[in-house]
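ok so i was messing around last nite and threw this chain in just to see what happens. nothing serious, just curious
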Amino acid sequence: MDSFLTLLHSFSSSLSDSELSSLKFLCRGKIGKRKLESVQSGTELFIILLEQQLITSDKVSFLEELLESIKREDLIAQLKRFVEEGEVNAPDDQPDVHEKRLLEVAIEVICENVGRDWKMLVRKLGVTEVKMDRIIAANPLNLREQLFQSLREWQKAKGKDAKVADLIAALRGCKMNLVADRVEQTLLPLNAGTR
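result:
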């Protein structure tokens, strides 16, 4: 499924009737009056904007202006996140099921055992300061959740190239050898089952 269409659909379902009316009014210079009169939902409006190429997954400035005009900061934030993160990973860009399970377990062990030095680990994995700051702002008082979301961010960015070995190497690179050992010990029985 197209992640941009999914995003637009979620926007549509969160618009009030008065917000939809405002959006229709703001589009008058771009869309004909008869077409606008037939629009009953945000989805219908977005379909017209897509058809006329006023918005596309890589051309969202007009959509952002519309959302700013109706003061929907929450939707603007979602749109900016979509632009920064790009397309949601396609299914063929995901690690295989076994590797995914190992990653889930490894991330759980890391979250349980890495404390205040989590940023050093996440930097080693290549997560940007901007993304870390956004995660911290979203989870201001929850250290474990900050680490968990940062590791998820790394996993999403790497797609099928996300490997437990990278996590262990990063832990060792940060001198977090006890945590690396714990991850390896926890994964031993899981790996043994696949041989």
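not much to say yet. DSSP finds twelve helices and no strands in the chain.
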